[in-house]
Design goal:
Its main location: membrane. By secondary structure, this protein is an all-alpha fold. It contains eleven helices and two strands, in the order ααααββααααααα. A two-stranded antiparallel ribbon has the order 1-2. β1 and β2 form a beta hairpin. The C terminus is likely disordered.
Length: 292
């Protein structure tokens, strides 16, 4: 039982990261109908920029905040100067476009930082915390707390604020939102900013658990997108649940089957689930089809 609980704890940490990436995908998709395949690069940049700023003797907190700000600005620039100028492109073309953006960011990162991994110090101590028969790194607790705070913040923004209602209005019907005086362009830009910021936060909190490098965001982005598809495209709750489910399956598969099959097991479950229910476990949330 202790072994099982340890695997579950590890899976929840990984699943929380996948859930954040998935929410980033959906935040953009629901407003603009764009599937941003560069989402994983926001995580990579969050960790790499923080490492660089700390090496310049900037305090940890200041480095993290500045990194989040810079990544957020990058997300806005991508929407304003790339996505917005391709608003008449079909969905497949937009996906290929964002893949190109992802590749470009990764290439520039490899030039700036090289291909060697970098270590980011933990927020608190390296000493693990033991409770209930399991041992958890203190940084893992920060990861879970960050996930919960991000999910709560996004829920509060979307359901309890006027700004969130404007975003939701654009996701339901772009034309009606425009007639009500809401700018879909600004809401789309905001969705990219939110997605980039949450991705940067995720990248900062997960970097101390292993290492960060120029290509760390590629696989995380794919797994986050897998959670989106598994949970149901456009369904934030479904994507969150699917993200945690993928993390648990990976951890249990690595523990009881083979660590070499860790990634393969998660995607095998995804394939089987989609063969049984192509719309995802929770189906797609009903959203309008007009976007920018």
């Amino acid at each position: 039982m202790a072994e099982l609980l340890q695997y579950v704890a590890n899976g929840l940490v990984s699943g929380g990261i996948y859930a954040i990436v998935a929410i980033g995908f959906i935040t953009i998709y629901n407003v603009s109908k764009v599937i941003n395949m560069a989402q994983g690069e926001f995580l990579m940049l969050g960790g790499m920029i923080t490492v660089t700023l700390i090496s310049m003797n900037i305090p940890y907190a200041g480095a993290a905040i500045l990194a989040i700000l810079l990544v957020t600005i990058l997300g806005i620039l991508i929407q304003k100067y790339i996505i917005a100028n391709a608003k008449n492109a079909n969905p497949i073309s937009l996906i290929i476009l964002t893949i190109g953006v992802s590749t470009l960011i990764r290439g520039v990162a490899s030039l700036l930082w090289g291909k060697d991994p970098f270590a980011l110090p933990p927020l608190t101590s390296n000493d693990p915390v033991a409770f209930g028969g399991i041992t958890v790194a203190q940084q893992s607790i920060w990861v879970i707390l960050s996930v919960l705070l991000i999910l709560f913040g996004l829920w509060y923004l979307m359901d309890k604020t006027m700004l969130g209602k404007k975003i939701n209005a654009c996701s339901v019907n772009t034309l009606a939102a425009r007639l009500m005086g809401i700018s879909p362009v600004k809401m789309t830009m905001l969705s990219f900013a939110i997605s980039a910021a949450t991705g940067a936060v995720a990248g900062i909190v997960i970097a101390p658990l292993s290492v960060t490098s120029y290509d760390v965001g590629a696989l995380l982005g794919i797994k986050g997108f897998a959670a989106v598809i598994l949970g149901g495209l456009g369904n934030p709750i479904g994507a969150t649940v699917a993200g945690f489910l993928l993390g648990l399956l990976e951890s249990l598969g690595a523990g009881y089957v083979s660590s070499g099959l860790k990634d393969a097991i998660a995607f095998l479950v995804l394939i089987v689930a989609l063969l049984i229910k192509p719309s995802g476990l929770f189906g797609e949330r009903s959203v309008g089809k007009g976007g920018l």
